[in-house]
C-alpha cells in the first residue's frame, strides 16, 4: 500500500509539474509570437536564384560568359528605388563579372524573375578596358541611388571595381544625375580631393529638394569608411566634407551573425533619412552608423551652410535621438512624411523595424514591421516611393561575400507593403 500510495503521489506530482510546464510553455510561445503578431504581410514582387540581364542578343551574352565579363554568381543586387514603372536595382562590382551596375526592371511585367535592363544603356555600364579612361557617362560601380521629386535619378558612383578582390579605381568617386523623363545625363560631378580620405567609401546618397525649386538641391553622401558626410550643392556645383564623432562606428556593436555567417564590420555612418520640412524651411537629417545601434540627427540648416557645417562650434548641433536596442544594426532607413515614421533594416534580426520620430527612441517604441529568418536574411536596402509603398530588398550578402551562395536556392528577394499596413498594430502607429 505504501508503495502504491507513494507511486500515486509521485504520479500526481508529475502530472502537476507537467501541467505547470505546459502552461508556462504556452505562455512563452504566446509571448514570443506576440512580438510579431502585428508584423505586416509583405507582398513578394521579385525573386532570383541568380541575376540575369536583358542582353542585346544571345551571341553577346555567350561571349560575356566565355570571356568572364559576366559571371552570374558574382552579381548581387544591393540598392533599389522606384520611379513610375521603373524599379531601379544596383549591382555593385564586388567581384569581377558584373554585367551592369545600374539597372531597372519594368513593373508592368508579370514576370516574377525578370532580367535586369541596364540603365540608361549597356554602353554606360561597360567597364573601360586596360588603361582606358572612363567616358563622361560611364558608371563604374554603384551601391545606392535616389529618385527625387523632380523626376531625377541621383547615382553615387564609387569608381571602384573588383572591390572584394584586387580592387581597381577606374575613376574618382562621382555623382551622376539623370533626367528620368528623357534618360539623359544632366550632370556628372567629380568629388574634390578635400572630400576624400584614404579609407573613404561612398555607398549611399540622399537628396534634399522640393518640387518647384529643383535647382536648389542638396545631396548628402555618407562616408562609411572615412567617417564623414559629404554635402553637394547642385546650385553652387560645389561640395564640402563634414566630420563629427557621431559618424563613427560603435566598437561594442560591430559583431554580426546573419544567415549562419559570423563577421565583424567597422562601417561608420551609412543610413540616412530626411524628416519633414520644418517652419524654418529645413529638415532634420536622421543618421546612424551601420555598426551601431544608436540614432542621431542634425538640422540640414547646418549641413547646407558650408561655413556652419565645417565650423567646430557646430559640434553641439548634433543630437542623440536614442538607442534602438540590442542587435538592431541597420544598413538603410527612410522616413514617411505623412506619418513621421522611419523604417529601418535590421541586419542581425532578419527583419524590418519602424520608429515614430514623435516618440522617444527606445526598444519599446521600436516596432517590428516584418520578420522572416529565410526571406529577410540581410535586408540590405529599403525605400518609400511616391505612392507610399515600402520596398524592401534582401540579398544574403554575408554568405555571398564570405562563403558563396547556392544557385539552386532563392537568394535575392524584393517585397513591398503599403506604409499604413506596415505600421498597423505597431508602436509606430499613432
Can you characterise this structure?
The structure is a single chain. The chain has six helices and 28 strands. It is globular and about 60 Å long. The strands form eight sheets. Strands 1-28-27-26 form a four-stranded antiparallel β-sheet. Strands 2-3-4-5 form a four-stranded antiparallel β-sheet, with no helix packed on it. Strands 6-7-10-11 form a four-stranded antiparallel β-sheet, with no helix packed on it. It starts with a helix and ends in a 7-residue tail after the last helix. It is of the alpha+beta class and 430 residues long. It is found in: Secreted.
Low-confidence stretches: 1-37
Strand order, main sheet: write it out: 1-28-27-26
The CATH class is Mainly Beta
Average of per-residue pLDDT values: 92
The CATH superfamily is identified as TolB, C-terminal domain
Radius of gyration: 24 Å
InterPro entries: 6-blade_b-propeller_TolB-like, MRJP/yellow-related
Pfam families: MRJP
GO cellular component, one term: extracellular region
Keywords: Membrane, Secreted, Signal, Transmembrane, Transmembrane helix
Amino acid at each position: 500500500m505504501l508503495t502504491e500510495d507513494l507511486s500515486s503521489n509521485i504520479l500526481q506530482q508529475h502530472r502537476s509539474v507537467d501541467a505547470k510546464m505546459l502552461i508556462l510553455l504556452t505562455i512563452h510561445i504566446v509571448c514570443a509570437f506576440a512580438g510579431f503578431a502585428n508584423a505586416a504581410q509583405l507582398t513578394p514582387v521579385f525573386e532570383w536564384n541568380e541575376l540575369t540581364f536583358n542582353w542585346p542578343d544571345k551571341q553577346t551574352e555567350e561571349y560575356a560568359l566565355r570571356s568572364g565579363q559576366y559571371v552570374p554568381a558574382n552579381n548581387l543586387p544591393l540598392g533599389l528605388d522606384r520611379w513610375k514603372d521603373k524599379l531601379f536595382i544596383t549591382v555593385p562590382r564586388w567581384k569581377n563579372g558584373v554585367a551592369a551596375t545600374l539597372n531597372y526592371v519594368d513593373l508592368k511585367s508579370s514576370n516574377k524573375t525578370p532580367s535586369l535592363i541596364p540603365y540608361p544603356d549597356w554602353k554606360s555600364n561597360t567597364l573601360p578596358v586596360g588603361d582606358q579612361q572612363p567616358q563622361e557617362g560611364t558608371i563604374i560601380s554603384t551601391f545606392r541611388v535616389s529618385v527625387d521629386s523632380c523626376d531625377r535619378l541621383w547615382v553615387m558612383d564609387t569608381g571602384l571595381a573588383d572591390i572584394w578582390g584586387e580592387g581597381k579605381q577606374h575613376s574618382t568617386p562621382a555623382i551622376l544625375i539623370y533626367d528620368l523623363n528623357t534618360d539623359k545625363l544632366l550632370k556628372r560631378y567629380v568629388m574634390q580631393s578635400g572630400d576624400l580620405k584614404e579609407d573613404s567609401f561612398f555607398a549611399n546618397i540622399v537628396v534634399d529638394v522640393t518640387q518647384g525649386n529643383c535647382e536648389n538641391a542638396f545631396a548628402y553622401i555618407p562616408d562609411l569608411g572615412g567617417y564623414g558626410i559629404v554635402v553637394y550643392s547642385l546650385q553652387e556645383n560645389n561640395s564640402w566634407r563634414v566630420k563629427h564623432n557621431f559618424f563613427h562606428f560603435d566598437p561594442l556593436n560591430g559583431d554580426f551573425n546573419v544567415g549562419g555567417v559570423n563577421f565583424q564590420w567597422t562601417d561608420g555612418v551609412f543610413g540616412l533619412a530626411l524628416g519633414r520640412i520644418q517652419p524654418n524651411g529645413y529638415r532634420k537629417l536622421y543618421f546612424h552608423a551601420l555598426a551601431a545601434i544608436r540614432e542621431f540627427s542634425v538640422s540640414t540648416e547646418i549641413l547646407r551652410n558650408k561655413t556652419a557645417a565645417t565650423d567646430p562650434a557646430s559640434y553641439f548641433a548634433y543630437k542623440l535621438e536614442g538607442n534602438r536596442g540590442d542587435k538592431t544594426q541597420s544598413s538603410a532607413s527612410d522616413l514617411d512624411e505623412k506619418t513621421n515614421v522611419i523604417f529601418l533594416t535590421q541586419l542581425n534580426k532578419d527583419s524590418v523595424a519602424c520608429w515614430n520620430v514623435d516618440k522617444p527612441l527606445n526598444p519599446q517604441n521600436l516596432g517590428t514591421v516584418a520578420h522572416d529568418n529565410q526571406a529577410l536574411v540581410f535586408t540590405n536596402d529599403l525605400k518609400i516611393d511616391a505612392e507610399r509603398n515600402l520596398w524592401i530588398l534582401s540579398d544574403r550578402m554575408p554568405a555571398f561575400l564570405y562563403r558563396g551562395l547556392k544557385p539552386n536556392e532563392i537568394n535575392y528577394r524584393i517585397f513591398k507593403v503599403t506604409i499604413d499596413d506596415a505600421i498597423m498594430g505597431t508602436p509606430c502607429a499613432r
